[in-house]
Structure formats: C-alpha cells, structure tokens
C-alpha cells in the first residue's frame, strides 16, 4: 500500500464510505514499510547524535567521497575507519580540512564543532606501546562523539607498579578502555582496581600463539574481574563508541 | 500509539478536524508495532502452511503441553523435534494420537490430515545405517509438510556400486537430501550424478577426527560438485524443511 | 573388454556359437567402463544445460584457452570463476567478445544467447556493500543459467528498517540468495520473513574474529530460521548454481 | 616491615635519631604491602557497594557456608553463582531466608534490604525461551545490585516482528542485556534500534556447530551494530554486573 | 534394463532383427547397474579375502546378529569393531564360539580357520601401556586377516634405550604399526630406525592439550622421518587392515 | 650379539686368533642394545634420585599393585598420579602406610624418608581456591623430591593487592610455580615481580571460553613477562618435577 | 671412551691383565656413541638404497650445494624437495645435469642410473588438475626410488564415471597414491574399488573452509573405506616414499 | 601524597604535633605509588642484572634509537629482539659497535663487557638446520646474560643415533634448550636422557599441519618425559632468558 492508497482510505473515512472499525482493521494490516520509515530512521540518526560512520575497508575513494558529500550537505560530522593511507590522501585533496591519523587509519571531517556529550572522562589504557594504534582509534572515536578523553599507555602487567602508580587517574575516570595484546591480562587487573565499566579491546599484537589477538580476546572474556566487557580484536572504534554511549548516561 | 489513538485520529479525519495530509503525516510516523503486527504474523503462518515447530530441547513437558494445546485449538498440526523419550511419553499420555519416533526424537500430532504440497519426490539418502536417525528426522519433517518421500539407505562411497545401482531413482527425484558422517563424501558423488538440488546433512557419526560431524560438514561445504547446499550437523529437520520449500515451487 | 570384444561376443550369439545364457553371463561381468560411458556423460551434460564451468584458480591462461576452444567448438557457453585479472586480459585478447567482471573475478563467453530457464525471480541480497563482489558472482552465474535476477544490496541487520522496507520484493522472489560477512545474521532475518528457500553465502568480509568468514558461516549454519541452507565462504558461484537448479523446478 | 618497625622508625624521627631525609628514604623503600592495604581494599569494597560474590563451582557447601558466615557478620548481602542444587539445599538449611533459583543456579541472601542504585531500567532480552536461565542470572544480579530490571523474552530474529513490536520498551531502557544462542544475531538487531549500550551474552543453546555458544559469541563480537560489547558464554552474572555499573553512572 | 530386456536384445541379435552395430549401441547405453553389479561386488569380496567388517557402534545387538547370520551362511569369518561389552555378551549367547576382547571392544567369529596371507611379520609397537587397547585392535585385525603379528609394548621415547634395545626385532618386521598418545613422537623415531613402512596410530591417551589424540595425530603427520603414514585417532582396526594389505604384497 | 658372542670374541682376542684392529672393528658394529643398557638405565634412575612415577590413569589397581611391589623391593619411594579414589582405596588396603590425596588424585608410598635435595624454597601460588587441587599435585611432587615447599593461594589478579602484600615471600623463593585458570594472567604479574624462574600451570578452571584451560595456557605462553615457562593444562606433577630439577642445581 | 681406550682394554684382555668377565663388564657400560655409530648409520643408508633427501626450504643455495657435493662424492643420487625456483636455477649452474620440476619444486641429480626396485606399478591419482603439482612430487620421488609409476589425473568424485572408466588400471596397480583437495573424497572411493594399500595425500587446493587442506585431510582420516593411510597436506614426497617402501616388499 | 606531604607529616611527628599512632594511620593509607616506586623498580632492574629488553616489532627505528640512548646513558647493555634488518641498519649507523644477527633478527649493544653469571653450561639443541635462527636467538640472549653456551644442531629424532652420539655433552649441561618444529619430538627424547631442566621451544618450521609451530608446541606440552617446560612458538629469547635465570641459581 502506497501513499495514494492511504489517501483513498482516509477519503473513504471522511466521506463515511467505511466505518472507523473497518478503517482501523485495514490500517493495522498495512505493510509498515510503506509508511515512510526512512523518516523514522532519520529521527534515530538525529537522536543518536552520531549519524553515519563509514567503514573504509573495501570501498574505493570515489565511493567514499560520494558518501561524504551527501553527509556534508546534511551538515553532519564524518568519521571513517579502516581507511588505507592511499585513499585518505585522495580524500584529503577534496576535503582539505579533513584530518587523517595514519597509525590508526582513521579520517575525520568536521562540518561543525563537536558538541560535548560526556559526563566524565574516558580513560584509554594500553599494555604496550604497540597497542597504541588501536587505542588511538578509540580515542579519536570518543573525542569525535563529544567526550573528554585521557590516555595511559605502556602500563602492562609485567611491571605492575607502573599501573599502580596511576591508580588515582584510573579511579577518577567514568569509563575505562583497556587495549592489550599477548596474554591480554591488563583488563583483569584494571577491573579489580576500579568500580567503573571497563571495555576491553584485544589487539593483534604478539606472535606465535597470540594467534593475531585471539589469546588476548579469550583472556579478556575469562576475566576474573567483574565489570569487564569485550569488543572484537583491534576494534578500537567499537570500544570508543560504546564507551561514549555509557559516558553520556 | 494504541488503537484508541488511532480511533481518535480517524474520528478527526471524519469530522474534518484535520486535513488528509495531516492525517497521512501522522500515520506515517506511527510506531508500526502498535498496528497489531501479530495479525500480519498470523497471515505469514497461514501462508507458509507450516505454523510452528516446537524445539523440544530445554523445554519441560509441561511447557510443551501448554503450547500444544494452543496450537491444537487453532487446528494446526504439530511437529516437535529433539524431544527426549521421557518427555515424549508424558506428552503421549495427554495427546493419545500423537506419534513418537524415538530414534530421531521427533513427535508429531495431527489435528487434520496432511495436505499434499510437493510436486515431486524427495529422496533421502544415507551413507551408512548409523546416519538413519538423522535421515528419519528429515523424512518425517518432509512428510509432515505434505511431500512424497523415498529413502535410500547405506549407500556410502566405499562401495560406490551400491549407489550407482540406484541411479535411476536418484534421477527421478525432485530434491535430494544426503546425510553422511565420517568423511561426508556422499553429497559430492550424488551431486555429480543428478541435476537437482542436493541438501547435504552432516551427521555426528564417526570417532576421533570426525569431531562430532565437523569433518563431514567441512567436506560438504567444499563439495567439488555444484548444486549442493548444507545445513547444520544432525539437522535432519532443517534439511527436510528447505527440501519441502523447494519441492512446492 | 573393448568394442571389438563386444562385437565378437554378439557375432557368437548371432551364429549360435554361444547360448543366450552364456552371453548374458558374459555381459553381466563386463567392466562397465568399456561400454562408453562418456556418452552417458555427454547426455548428462546436455540434460543439465550447463556443461562445464572452469575453475580458473591454479590454471594458466594457456590451459584455460585450450579448454575454451574445445567448449566453443561444441557450441557451449562458457563460465570461468576465480580468474585473476591478468589471465582474464590474456583470454580477452583471443575471445574478444568475452566479458570479464573484475570485482567477482568471473569471465563469461557466449556462443549462443542464454535460454531462459527459471520460473521466478532469484533475489540476491547483501548485508553490506563489501559483500557485493561475492553477490555479483552469484548474479552472473544465475543469469548465465537462464534466470531473471534482482538485487537488494546493503540491507544489513543493524538497520533493520532498510530490510523491512523491501519486504514485498523479498516475498515475490522464488529463491533468495543472502550474502553476509561479519556476524552473518541477515539470512536468519530474511528466512523468517519469507516462505521460499534461502541460500546463505558467508563472505570473508570483516576483521579479527570474523576469521575470514568462519563466523558468518557458523552463524548461518545455526540459523534459528528454517528454510536456510549454506554454501562455502565466498562461494557466490555455488549459491547461484543451486538457486538456478531450484528455480527451474 | 611490619607495624612495629614503622613505629620504631617514627620514634627515631620524633627523638631526632635520624633526619627527616633519612626517614623519607626509608619510607620510600617500604614494601607497600606492610602498610596495611587490606584496609584500602576494605574501602574499595564499601565504595563498590558490592563486596564479594562467591563463585560456587568447585567449592564444597562447607567452604561456602564458612564464607557466608563471615560476610553475614560484616552485614553484607551475599550472591552465589554457579551453585549446584544439592549444595544450595544444604546451605538453605542454615541460611533459612536465602533464596535459590534452580534454573540459573544462583543463591542470594540478604542481611539488609537492597538499596536502589540504578538511574534507569535495565532491560534483559532473550532470543529464545531456552536462553532464559542465563538471562535470569543477569536479572538477579542486577536486582541484587539495586537496579530496576525488566525482561523481554523469546523475541529472536527469525520472527523479527516480535522484537519490533516492543521497540518502545527497548528505547526506554538505559542499558540492555541481550542473551542469545545459536547464531547470536539478536544483539546486532537490538544495537541497531537503540542508542544505549548493549551487553551481549552468548548462551550455549544450540547443537552441532553452535559449539556450545562459540558461534553466538563470535557473531556478537562481529556485530555490525555499534554500541555492543560482549561477555563470556553463559555469563549472565557478568552481564548483570557491568550493566549495573553502567546504570549507576 | 533388466535381465529380461537383455535377453530380448540378444534374441533380436540372434534372429537378425537388429544389426550388430545397433545392438552394440544399445548395450553401450545400458545403465550398468542393471547388469547385476552385486555379483561384481561379490567378486571383489572374494578377491579381497576379507568380506565384511561390522562397525558395531550405533547398531543394536539384534541388527548385528541378523548380519552375522547372513555372513555365517556365506561361510565368512566375521570381525566386529567398536562393540560395547553389553552387546557382545548378547551376541555370545547366540554365537557361542565367538571371542570378545573387552579392552579393544572387538568380537571375532570364525566359520573356518584363518588362512595365512602375510609374507612377513607385522610388529605392533606402543609408547605406553595405556595405548595397548588400540594396539590390540590392530593385532586382532591383522591376525584375523592371516598375518603373523608380534608386539612390543611400552617403549616410549622418554626412555629411548628401551626402544633401541629391541632394534633387531624392528628391523626384522615387514610392516610396523606404532600406536602412541600424548606427544606421538614414537613413529618418528621408529621410522628413522627401519626401512619398512610404518603405520602410525594416534591414540586418545593423555589429558589437557593432548586433545583426545589430536596432538599425537598432528605430530605423526609432521613426522620428520620418511616412510610414515597415519590413520584416524584410536583406529587400530584401520592400521591392522592396511598393514595386512601391505604384508600380502 | 649377545653376551656369549661377546665372550667368544674376547677369547679370540686373548688367544690371538684375531688382531686388535679386527676386534675393535667388530665391537664398533655391535648392536649397542646387546651391551646391557638396562644397567645404564638403572644408573640413570639412581642418579636422578627419582626412579619411577606411575601414571595411574588407564591402569587397573592390580597392575599398579604389581608395579608397586617391584619398586618397593628395590627400596624406592613411589608416587602415583591421576589415580581415581576407588583404585586408591584398593591400593591402601595392601600398602597400609601409603597416603592418598583425593583432591589432587595423588598417592605416595615411602620405603625410606625423603632426602632433602633442594637449595631453596619452592613457592606454589594459585589464582583462586579452585586451582588448589592442581597446585597440591605440584606441592606433593616437589616435597616427594626432597624440596621445601611453601604455598600462597587465592591471590588472583582481580585483587592485585592480595598478591603484592606477599611480595617478600615471592622474592625469597628460589623457584615459583603459578597455577591459574580462566584468563591465566597471574604468572605474568608474578614474573614481573621476581627474578627467579616461574613455572606456569594452566588449570581447567573456568567455563565457556576458558575451554578447559586452553585460554589460560595461551595467556601463559604469551606472557609479556620474561622468565616464564609453561607445562600442560592441570599438570601439577610436571610443574613440581621441573621445579625440583631447578631447585637442586 | 674412545678408540684408544677400547684398544687398551683389548690389550689387557690379550695380555691377561683383566679377566674376560671384567672386560665384558667394562664393555657393557661403554657409552655406545663412542663405538663409531656413524658407520652403522652408513650401513643403514646403504641398506635403504635412498641415502639423503634434502629439504630445500630454509636452506640457502650455498648450503645446498655444499651438501650436494658431499653426496656426489659418495656416488649417491640426490633428491631435493621444496626448492624455490631461484635457488634451483643457481644450483643448475653448477650441477648442469640436474633436473628441476618447477610445478612441484623438486630437483633431482643422478650420479648413477636409478636401479629398479619396485615389484609392481605405483598409480598416482588426482581429483583435479590443480592437485597435479603435489602428485608430481610423489611421481618423481617414486621414480627416483626405482619404481614404475603411472598417473591418472582429474578423476574427482563429482564425475564418478571418469574414475570408474579407469577401474582396470586401478586394479592392476600395487600401490595407489591419491591426491585431492577440497572435500578430499577420492581416496574413499578408490579405497572401496581396490584391494591394495591407498596412500592419501590431502592438497591445499580449495578456498574458504577448505582451510588450506585441513578439510581434505580430515575427510581422508575418516575414510569409510579400509586400506587408506594419510600423509601431511601437500606431502607428495612422503606419499611417494612410503609407496616405494611398500612396493619393494 | 608526594614527597613534600610526607616531609610535612614527619615534621609533625618530630614536633609532636601528631601522635605516633596518628602518623602510622596516615602512612598506612598513603597511596603507595607516591612513595617513589620507580626507585624500587630501579632496584629490581639492578638486581636482575638485565634491565630492559626492547621488543623491536612495531616500533620505528626512531623510537628504538631514543630508548637506546637513554639506556646507554644509564650504562646498560642493550638487547633488541624481532628487529627487521632495515631498522637494524639504521640503528647501526648511530650505534656503530652494535651487532646485528640477521637470521634471528636480534641486535645487541654493549656499554660494558658482559659479566659471567651462569654456574654451568647452557646447551642449545635443534632438531634441524632450519630451527637454527630461533636457537640463535636463545644463544645470544643467554650469552648476553652472562652464560657459557654450547650448541648441538641438527640432531632430530629421525636419526636418533646422531643425538645419542652426543649424550655426554647433554649430560654435562646445566640447562638444556631444545628447539624443534614439525612434530616437536626432540625435547621428549632429550628429557628422557638427562636429569636437568629442559626448556622446549617450538619453532614454526614445517608445512601443512605443522600449523606454524602449533603441532610442535602441543607435542612439547604433552611430553611424556618429565622435566620439560615450554615457551611460545619461535620464542628463542624467552627460552634463553629463563635458562639464564635457572643457570644462575
């Protein structure tokens, strides 16, 4: 049923050709997709304050540019993840003010300043320096979504004092993102020190039986500390996103 | 928005308090779930001619009986899969005419005779005799859905002549279901002999590296014969179901 | 026993040198392969209307060209899958009218127009835009086999309204092919909306624990919707093939 | 160094036997554990408002009773997870007012009424009825931690309308916990409908390639919806715990 | 085409109603299965001297007895593998002279004495005493197939001298079967000491990361000694069978 | 060549029937196993001071008793691992002074007092109380081998202060054994605090993705702390054994 | 003990300085390695008629050339496996008469003609044309070891008639090597048709869930045909080697 | 609390402004991190005699140079592992006297001569020549930490006499490191021959089911020889490190 059919139905109601009950019955059986749900979707976008993130992998720079132009016209800020440097450079020639972070392969473009949304600070922690690119993806995402973000890098569990030394900063944070590769033990230790939600991000750092991050992932899922939830391997974006949702509550 | 709100809206249309355009706009933004989609679901059930299959695992016989009574009232035929013998016996005390197949752990109850739906014959083949319980689940499902079903058991590839001997029956079938454990090679051979869709069902028959059916599953997914698609390990029901959908086309 | 031996045997029958019973006994023990099964195979090819698909991987362009020439002489249409662009370019220099699809690595060559074979429409659906190359392989295969094919791309479950909006098109299709990577949830949702067979194609789209398509594959095998069968990861060809077999029934 | 050594040191400071600088140097090198960190730990417990959860697996009922008595003396509420029915019955003979939930194998004992802590509602959703025991563990945990909890069961993706019908309730929730087995697709769909954090709990419901919940876990980790984080298979407690931390922010 | 049709065809040849060429053409297109391949199969059985082995798993004692009676009538010796003790006892009540080996779950019944078939000795070696049940299955199978078998048990690689002490016996054997669990290293060492084929049988002996024999299997497949081939985990029967085939060459 | 042949050879040397060079040549080609290596093995046993450990799994109590009697006659102390309680009880009826540890399934029998062998203390640490049975196996083994053993239980990383509080004891130990299940993070933290070898023992404690200890194992293999080596899952014996070897250096 | 010590000992025997018993006792305790076991090894090499195969992977062409020169001096024929083309070209500049097979990455160099060793024919079969490089490695190895080898390529199970057509050749072979990728079903079918040992070689041919040959390997290990043993993935050399050992019996 | 606060506190103690008890209470609650634990860490470094190893992977040569300069200033010797040749060359331009080992990708720089620390010899053994790069990493690490290291290469189990020939050297060593790929059997054999700790290093040498070292790892974890502990795949550094810790005891 399309708009015209709906119009006809309402005309019949108005003219009394069908009773209210008959009209209700017909409306109930309406295929909802004909009611213009794109608008509802539009509402959802506005409500979330975070319209569309573009997943750069497997898209050509031409495809990405086309999407970016549409989003720019709607006045939206743009975040692109997993974007290879070569494509980023092509995009930056058109979107001159866009910013590209080569380590974490993220590009941002602001049509308007980011509006502060977060209540507290999101603290992003890494076990080693090699985990930083993933952490950076989380940092950029959370900042892009209007959060105040702090970082605490290279405080892995093999030198536990480095971590304990920063206990106060950990306790002040509202949400903590912890990225670690290898044995992925850091979220367990952090989770035991704070009473805030910890989002654990396994990274693909390591070799041999680190299995590209699977060991870290498994360790995090089995954390003996409560209050830890996990995202996909190297998914800094996902961690930054859910941390932002939590921080605006 | 509930029914009352809808009623009010239509009353306003009737009385001219709002224009047609205003009414359409309001209807478009209706949360569709308030329109009573269960009815649409009802339509879907009728259309499929196969309303509800009950997954017996993890349900108590009391829970199952309660669902059965509702379905019986609606005049529907009932199929329960993965039902332990003990529960089945409890159910049969209430539903006296229900039929239980202990090998394949399926129970059926007919409120009305099954209506023929299939165009051709569905042929269910097994590699060994130990695969028969899974095959039987497929057979019962397909018969329950109105199909003519034939079987061809114990024709595994280690004695290829047994299979070739039955080539004519294979060529006559409209859809073929092939259940095999161990190396799961049979669907490939069958798929090379016929020009009909082959639904492959890996079974958990075997030991050691058969890994409870994983080897058979992987072999079937890698079939060098075209025209083969696969369902979950031991999922005779799923094979019978999709074969029935195909056979009524 | 070759033809000459068969001839001699029949001569003996004719001349009465052996009795009928003796001849029958000898014929029964004939190695069947000497009876010229290539002809039977020939019949099979014609019957299927889809003689030979060339698997391009691991073959040189010289080898492929040699096969193509033979097939062309027999007047057959040719489909080559998993063909690297470099080899394709070499082939196109000889087979000028051949068509190459670089995204899905498929090459087709028509010696005669494709004959319509399908009864209804095959609808090919993808969860994301990155799944399109696999979907395209299915589309080309199904068209090559004489089917009317429609597509519905980028309707993944995270924005369920996009999918629901197209419900009518889904319900009209005879067979549905659903390609998805990542969590591979789309076939379950589609399978719950239609009463037609759904062929699910896991794609290798994703990262980390997507494990090159294994996660999507597993999800599809465990679909809680009935009526779903699965092919190998990225096997668009296989999906297109079995969908074609189903659609001509 | 124990308290007495610390006392002596301070006495020496007081009496001038060592300079301030010497004292500082000695204090700096103090093994911090001698400073009585158990008290700090005590503070942490109070601050979290959720002192000790007892993991029942692998502990005898005697061991558990001993721990419970200590906790009761400190006036704390007690939550025991993964407690077999037999042990629970033994415990209930001593702690008469304790409450045992056999489906989810959880026991609670309240020394004082639970204090409301949560800001909004936590909504616990399941795909099927077989996922309810895991969901119930989350419900009890979250209620025990002072949250208002609602439930929405059996709304799996194969009948997507059942879920969409409850969209309003989903949108009202502050945090959502989604438990699903088999293909684990539900969190992706829910995550696409709401703008709140979704905690996904894979359950071990399924057979064959569900691999005791691994398939659901992998699907959830690969969710194409942002805003989803995951806990261990069947870890209803963990989901309830982190949801509670989020809900009190 | 059945025998009657064949008879008619030959009659036509005899009577000159069809030419030889026509008859040949018709015979070529005969579905070979109509020619009575069971007889060919029968030939194959006789030729192999090892007609049917019954896989006991998943068959009832009634089913097994029925097969045994048929085989006994044909005067064949019978070997049943993977037969639970309970079923064996039931069978032994009917087949009084049958012999059951509870450790390896094998039952044999001789209608006639085993005919010697092997050229040399088959030596069955185990790493530990816990591997003996699997080895015994190989021993019984090889003896049943007419071979002279010797055994060498508990000579694992952690005490390499035990093995080296028996070097002469190893060098005298024609075929060697080596069963080992845990790290499965023994076939590599044996394979380096002899110039005869080594059939490696991984056993499910071990715990933790022995993964029910997978570790031993993988080690054997990666043997740095040439001349080693592998059968399935715990497949003593398979090892005894192929060793017998080799030993009769 | 057996002893008699050797005797003859030496007689020929003595009598001058063969030259020294000839004798040397013949001796060189002697199969070494004829030289009586069991004696050498005997030496090895004495030298190790730890003759034979009996792996109880898969052996009957009768078999074990037979081995024990032989070892007792040689005056050796006996350690049996993985011994089910039922078998242990049977053994204790004969070996009255034997001691059985039901939690860790170890039985010891001393024919003479254990001789102190270790230089320092071996400290056995566990993450949780559920890891204690595995730890106890290590403790008994190390004590049986003549070591002074201390324990430190339930100091998992989720409450890092509990561990740090005991730092002095950790630093005093010569070798540390660390048993942990779930995420297996404890060895990394301990390894970062001490400068002594750490033997990590993954335990099968956990559920879901702990995969019976695989997660803990992987985490330990990927420890970011140097100085950590790993044994098989639940292999307390192996950890105690190698720790003993280290401690006597 | 070295040669000089042995000489002294014998001198003492000769001169009567020690008794025969004393000498025997001393000889028994000789570390056997001092007896010059390289010679025994030498014997072993000669006996096997197949001295050293060089594994080319991970060796520089310089290293390989050095080994080849030594082997050439000893008059041995040389086989090098897994040799990259670049290294082969460097070697062929020095060993002009060496032969390189680029598809299977094997190089052979003959210092003397290969001596026939095999009793019958080894038949090497492949499922597809892409499996030929692996098969070729087996062919060259077996020929190099003095066997008569025949080949039968591209007879995969999806066109079973191609295989059956060649049944006579299969039945004539003494040993059969069967290489297959994808679902690896061919050895099962071949094993059911012949009464000779079948060496199955899984190849890494396939994509997606073929997992680089694991699926084929698993299928072969689970062959329902008796008489099949398996070597490592792509291990054509190993198959050729053990087939040669079998064929010379 | 920083140093000034501590100073003030002690001043108050001295001046009697607060009682000893009050001071103790305040000190106990001090955040330990403010006590200057970096110094404690410093102590730990000195004590270990092995301050910082730099993991080269994922760091730029600029980052590495910056760390090296700091360490050089502190007068420390430097070891860098997993350093690509390109980065090494850049570093060697600045640190002229640094030494790079391209096979094992290790770079060392000595600011002062290595001080002997080890009590006995560490013997590093490999199964094949291809395992040498990993072994070399262990050798360099152990030498860098002040140990006397010997090597024994290419003594794999397929030619067991090669290993036995060197038994004396094995027995003399204090600690043994055994590196092996493929089936990883060597540590078991070595562990059975010596009474010293064996550190097993699985290497990624092999193909097919060697799975990049997983098979060797699993075999080593399941060693039937006691006294074997395992490190990560290809982790020569880790093996050398723990062997050094053991050798200095």
What structural class is derived from the secondary structure elements of chain A?
alpha/beta
Assign a percent range to the helix content of chain A: 40-55%
Largest protein interface? A-D, 34 and 34 residues
In terms of DSSP E residues, the strand content of chain A is 15-25%
| N- to C-terminal distance of chain A | 40 Å
Report the mean per-residue pLDDT of chain A as an integer: 85
What letter string, H or E per element, gives the SSE order of chain A?
Answer: HHHEHEHEEEHEHHEHEHEH
What does the largest sheet of chain A look like? Answer: 5 strands, parallel
Sheet with most strands: strand arrangement of chain A:
6-5-7-8-9
Descriptive keywords:
globular; about 45% helix; 11 helices; alpha/beta
């Amino acid at each position: 049923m399309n708009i015209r059919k709906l119009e006809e139905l309402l005309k019949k109601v108005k003219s009394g050709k069908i009773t209210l009950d008959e009209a209700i019955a017909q409306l109930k059986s309406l295929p909802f997709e004909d009611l213009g749900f794109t608008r509802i979707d539009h509402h959802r976008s506005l409500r979330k304050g975070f319209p569309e993130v573009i997943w750069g992998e497997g898209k050509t720079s031409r495809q990405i540019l086309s999407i970016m132009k549409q989003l720019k016209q709607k006045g939206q800020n743009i975040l692109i993840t997993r974007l290879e440097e070569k494509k980023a450079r092509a995009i930056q020639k058109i979107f001159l003010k866009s910013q590209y972070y080569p380590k974490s392969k993220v590009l941002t473009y602001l049509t308007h300043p980011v509006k502060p949304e977060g209540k507290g600070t999101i603290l992003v922690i890494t076990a080693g320096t090699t985990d930083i690119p993933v952490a950076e993806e989380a940092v950029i995402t959370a900042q892009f979504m209007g959060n105040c973000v702090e970082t605490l890098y290279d405080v892995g569990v093999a030198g536990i004092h480095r971590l304990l030394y920063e206990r106060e900063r950990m306790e002040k944070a509202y949400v903590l993102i912890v990225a670690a590769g290898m044995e992925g033990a850091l979220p367990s230790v952090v989770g035991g020190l704070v009473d805030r939600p910890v989002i654990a991000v396994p990274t693909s750092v390591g070799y041999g039986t680190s299995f590209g991050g699977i060991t870290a992932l498994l360790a995090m899922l089995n954390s003996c500390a409560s209050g830890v939830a996990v995202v996909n391997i190297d998914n800094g974006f996902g961690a930054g996103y859910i941390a932002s949702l939590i921080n605006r509550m």
